[in-house]
Amino acid sequence: MPRRDHLFPLRRGLPRRLRVRARPDRFPTPSPTPFTGSGSGSGVGSVPTPTPGAQSGGASRASNIQGFTLESFTISSGTTVTWTNLDSSPHTATSGISPNFDGAFDSSSLSQNGTFSHTFNSTGAFPYFCTIHPSMTATITVQ
Fold first, then answer.
1. Among the listed ranges 41-45, 80-84, 124-128, which one has the minimum average pLDDT value?
2. Which of 10, 11, 101, 123 has its CA 20 to 30 A from that of 55?
3. Around Cβ 43, how many Cβ atoms within 10 Å?
């Protein structure tokens, strides 16, 4: 029977002159460095970018997007809301009455664990929705 080594070249091993021998003394062990990049709030590992006009030291409210559901709630003026998408599907938090964006805020597409923040400085009712899933709607009431 003919040899079939040409069909499985790695089975034979590398020729002696190409064999790799580890020399750990030649390569220093890398040390971890902290992440210093700026994020877009678009997904895992990103650093949320503060919303322009956000007040530091003001009240904050977390809102989870989960189970294809957006939360309706009441907050005080000056509160910063941070949405986190806990679903595996992408979602948005977009101001307006579905499907019409009114220009107040838009998270763009948030992948799983992505975050977006917006500070509400004026009172009133702020309806919002997911542009990807327009049936997902809710309202934030600011007092």
1. 41-45
2. 101
3. 16
Structure tokens of 35?
């992440």
Say how many domains are in the chain: 1
Vertex 68, ends 72 and 50: CA angle to 5°?
Answer: 60
Q: What is the CATH number of the domain that holds 66?
A: 2.60.40.420
CB 70 within 8 A of CB 76: no
The DSSP secondary structure of 105-123, one letter per residue, reads EE---B-TT-EEEEEE-S-
Q: What is the pLDDT of residues 46-78, one digit of tens each?
A: 444 444 444 444 799 999 999 999 999 999 999
The region that residue 26 occupies, defined by phi over 0 for left and psi between -120 and 50 for alpha, beta otherwise, is alpha
Q: Would you call the peptide bond into 99 cis, given omega within 30 degrees of 0 as the criterion?
A: yes
- The whole-model pTM stands at 0.60
Beta bridge partners of 61: 81
